[in-house]
Amino acid sequence: MLELIGVSAGYSRSMVLHDVSITLPDSGALAIMGHNGAGKTTLLRVAVGLLPVKSGKVLLDGEDVTKMRPSARVKRGLGYVPQGQQCFGQMTALENLHLVSTVKSEVDGVLDTFPALATLLSRRAGLLSGGQRQQLAIARTLLTKPKTLILDEPTEGIQPNVVADIEGVITSLTQRGDLSVLLVEQHVGFALRATDSYYVLESGRVTSNGVGGPGAIEAVRAAMAV
Asked: Which uninterrupted H or E stretch holds 171?
């Protein structure tokens, strides 16, 4: 479980998050939605330890990790896929995966989740499509064996057929029961299909939260229109 309790954070003297509290369950998926500038990426940077809090706490599996470095949080089961399909472009897809693990069974395991990558292992990551790089970035993070996987705008610049693949991957991962997913996303339909519950941020504050199901899309769009 990942919890942010009363978190306020920002850059220099500019505050971005104001007393934000969010709880990600032990298994399942949670979406954070909001317009550009709402504070979504700042919230993720706080969660993974890339930005210190001004006040509040970050808990991981009940342990206070507020002052822990990002590497220590990774060792405790936190995986982070930043926005922008980030890979090492001059390295092959396989070399990108081998940065995390060279154990064949582990690499084969993530390739089972992303079978399209299996035919692209010898290709330089910089020559892959945006969707292929996004799958590679997620696969590389899964090699760290996270208990909580954080995805920042995974559909940005991705072709529709790959968006459907990523949605399927999120669903299959959470159905295993040993992994939680925190998803930051602007596309409301995708976010609600891929997750069980949601929070809406506006100007660094939680303005709405709820669960998926009938009426959820309308509720989120209404909250984002305020």
From this structure: helix 160-175
